[in-house]
Specification:
This protein has a single domain, classed as Metal Binding Protein, Guanine Nucleotide Exchange Factor, Chain A (Beta Complex), CATH 2.170.150.70. Helices cover 10% and strands 38% of the residues. The protein contains two helices and ten strands. It has a five-stranded mixed β-sheet with strand order 8-9-4-3-10, with no helix packed on it. A hairpin with a 6-residue loop joins β1 and β2. The radius of gyration is 14 Å and the shape is globular. It starts with 5 loop residues before the first strand and ends in a 10-residue tail after the last helix. Belongs to the Gfa family. GO terms for molecular function: carbon-sulfur lyase activity; metal ion binding. InterPro entries: CENP-V-like, CENP-V/GFA, Mss4-like_sf. Keywords: Metal-binding, Zinc.
């Protein structure tokens, strides 16, 4: 459906939450050092909302917010796994955890460190992150 993209599928540990996402087979993953990403080891890649589809488990999702409450940290209420969330940097998209994708569609992963401890400064200096959720 999307030129140059592949359909990845994934979900939480217990299988209650399942999704599909269209993204490159070569993922650009962010490794953020903000307080929550550090605690959860939240590494993620960003996609536009139009390329994400929740297949099942909406009723099993819970949301945690803090500070500005812009980031929506969704997780499965049964197993506690956050397989995707709505990032503060891209409220019009999703941050997808590559380790929650099913095997077979990821070719490579490139990881970029983001200084989430100084979030405003990092977002101002980063040239492309806010455009990653644009279709």
């Amino acid at each position: 459906e999307y030129r140059g993209l592949v359909k990845h599928t994934g979900g939480c540990h217990c299988g209650a939450v399942r999704f599909e996402v269209w993204a490159s087979p070569d993922l650009h993953v962010f490794n953020c050092n903000c307080s929550i990403c550090t605690k959860k080891q939240n590494r993620h890649f960003i996609v536009p909302a139009s390329r994400f589809k929740l297949l099942k488990g909406a009723d099993n999702l819970r949301t945690y917010t803090f500070n500005t409450h812009r980031a929506q940290h969704t997780f499965c209420k049964t197993c506690g796994v956050q397989s995707f969330y709505t990032p503060r940097s891209n409220p019009d998209g999703y941050g997808i955890a590559p380790h929650c994708l099913d095997e077979g569609t990821v070719r490579t992963i490139i990881t970029e460190d983001i200084n989430g401890k100084e979030w405003e400064k990092a977002m101002k200096e980063h040239k492309t992150i806010r455009d990653m959720s644009k279709p």
